[in-house]
User: Fold DUF4374 domain-containing protein from Algoriphagus locisalis.
Amino acid sequence: MKHTFKNFQKLTAILLAGGLLAACTEDPTPNPNPNPGPDGESRWITVAAARMGDNPGDGNGGTLIYSLSSEEAKDPTVSIAPFDNGFIVPSNRTARLQSSEDGNTIFNISYAGDTGGQYTKYTVEGGQDFTQNGTGVSIAPYVGSAPRWIKLFDGDQTGAAVYVNAEAQFDDNDTPENATDDTYLRHEATMGVVTLNLVNSSIIDFQESSLALSEEEEANGYYISRIDMPTLNAAGDKLYIGARLSKVDPATGESDNSGEILGSKTIVLDYPSLLNPTVITSAVGYGNTNGYRSINAFEYNGSVYQANQGDPNGSHILRIGSNNQYDDSYVFNLDDALGVEGAYILAWRPAANGKAVIAYRHDGSEEGVAGAQGFFALADLNAKTAVRLDDIPYEADFYLFQYQGFVVDGTDIYLTQAPVGKNGNIYVVDTESGEVTKGAQLENVDGSHFIGVF
Assistant:
């Protein structure tokens, strides 16, 4: 019999609330030994749902979240309806969510609108019950009201947000609108990075730096136009920031989309000082490394593994070694591994064993109501292999471009599957065996979709 979970989980949360609040009220630091679930052996799985704005799948109608235990997330007789009963996360558009490693805390920075750039955190208490933990802080004065931010993997202590502003430079300092016969010189790209204390909800540091490419690249009109997804190296003394390049025609200073796609680049700067940025370039992968909504680079076994997007040879997983340079001896091409063309990594997440779930599309994906159809694959970073997870159902309207979150619980990885406007399920991938478990049902509404679990 189908078990409707909406009211059951809320009742469970009420019974637990006294103990959880007592644990969290005095000390806002995330508990390193969680006891969140109904039987003390579980963790919370928080489902994120993006409501339609003007068009199906745009996610611009706001974000709702709803939590259930990991056991219940694996149970296909459980059914949840976040769009009807979820907690509304403050954000003008799709919220940028992160969770603590134990699942007990949700971190959010509102995206755009009057509250854009506002950081808040919530204690997860089951179902639609999320209690704000402490006061919030705005990072908008540093990185704007639509910041790119991520939680660093340092024990839930620090978040980092970034922006870049690029302005064309001409020989007489005219702007492109005023330029006629003026000579284009280069783009001046200014990067801002702010670090945020997630425990005390306070700003740690903010630094601005100028980003330069090689003289030849800049003379040909290339510049860094977008950055995102800062990641700490294993030593904890460098921050890697993914980058997207754009190009203008040097003869006119106007946008030029026909140029050569350059080797993938990453900004490396000192941490925690946020100073001395340099740019490194891959000889293996081409295209961008800034990702989109999901974390795009992860530290594993002493190196940082990073996805690229827009590679003419299909997305790669690239490796940055302990020397803070790309390791060009490591070649992991998703086209070759999956036997497709034009693979494009939309989001991904590895477990501690080096096995990863990858959300991707490719040139053979069907065109759905909101864009190209998506798929999931199980990859092995060590063997450099990948297989499509065929036990997860796919159709044209299964849209993953805005996908944000996976939950890693030991060697299990949780994900959501639901086409735009249609019901779906949570699925759990055992990364050791490759076994896929169909879990709780996700009740959808017209034009909306699910953007992951936290």
The first strand starts at residue 3 and ends at 4. The chain is about 10% helix and 40% strand.
